[in-house]
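Entry, Tuesday afternoon. Goal for today is a structural model of the target with zinc ion bound, before we commit to ordering more compound. Inputs were pasted exactly as handed over by J.K., no edits. I checked the ligand SMILES twice against the vendor sheet because last time a stereocentre got dropped in transcription.
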Amino acid sequence: MRKEWKTLIVAIFIGSVCIGAVSAQGSLVSDYPELKPLVDFVGEEEISVMDLVGYKAAEKAMEELGFSKGDPNILALTDAGYIANIDKYSTERALNGLMMAAGVSQGKGNLVNVHRAYNKPLWFAFFDKETGDCIYLEVNKSYLKSWLDREAAGSVNLSAFMEVGADALFSKISRENIDPDRLITEEGAKAWHHNFEEKTFGGNEFSIITISAVWSKGISNEFLRSAELHNHICPGLTSGYFIAEYLKKHYPLEKGEQWVVWAVPPWCKDDALQQILDATVGKRCMAVMYIPGNISKKLPPEYKNIAGIYVKIGKTGEAKAIVLGWDWDKACSDCGITRKDFKDFSSYKWWWTRLRADVMLMEHEPEEYISVLMEKDLGNQGSIKEMNAKWMAVGANPLVELGIMPPENTATPKTPEKTHSIPVTCVIAAIAIASVLAIVRKNMRK
Ligand SMILES: [Zn+2]
């Protein structure tokens, strides 16, 4: 009998624990009615600590900046889920809380999911384009991890998590005015520069101010998605966005055609091109080759501004190469900046010149800076893989093959079809023999 009593007591205990756990979730909405839209969205059984992290970040920002849900002047930026992790825990669910609390979304164009490596801190930023104010919240990793550990062990109380103060959950909360109209002036940039030195936005200052600035002036979805991948906007990324626009307009794709980008040389542009054209490295639609100084010297002047080779290839393998140029000197002069200041990392100039160009280039058209340096039919290249393996192979030089620069005088490997080495050797040998014979004959006459 005693044994049966024990079993009954254990059963009652387990039952009460289960009921307790369910009612803790159930009571979350009765404790916090404002969570109803979030709980409805993710499901009562699914609501988690990470959903609430995004909610609490938005709630704090709304309180500090004084905006309400769905305010069209607000841009939210975060690396949640793309792909900042908290130790072994992923963070994408924070986006649910953020969207439901602040009323922002990628669909509305006012949520930017900034790409960062898996080991980077989890952060949120909110920008109000009406006032220029921006608030940055960086999550306290070890503190949040302790809650996630409890959740993984099945012993978390979400109502208790809702009680956590912002000062405990976030290791950094900072607020600054980032009004782009002020920051693109040299005086404004000088006055703001201390925020870079002090890492006011946790080292994400450049990402936050550049994306917010271009967004506030009106940004296309394609450019915004490129900015997410690249994690900032710089004139290099703008050049890639402009090149994509240029190709779409002047070389529209026919059915079955696609772009293969030979990034010769690569720069920020190629992240926009991968995103917009889906010309990704992994799918072999982008191949990268650098142009070192000793090669650059040999390029004709009109090719000094070379901004990549764009190959349009059809299903049957027929390919056409378009070599484009990008006029940095004109871009800098139109934006009222000096090109060498891009490299001045000892002052405000490196970021000020980029931010100013970001904003000012939006007033211009791709045709003002892009030129077609060459168009060449490549004939039938078989497949993309075969074409890349030939033109962009180790040791190959597509600039020589396209006739843009003279061949190296040393034994530079060439693409398979064009091995002139044997005839050239014969000619050299013939000239050498003829010269020796001439000298011998001359000496004999003496
Ligand atoms: Zn860049």
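The mean pLDDT is 91.
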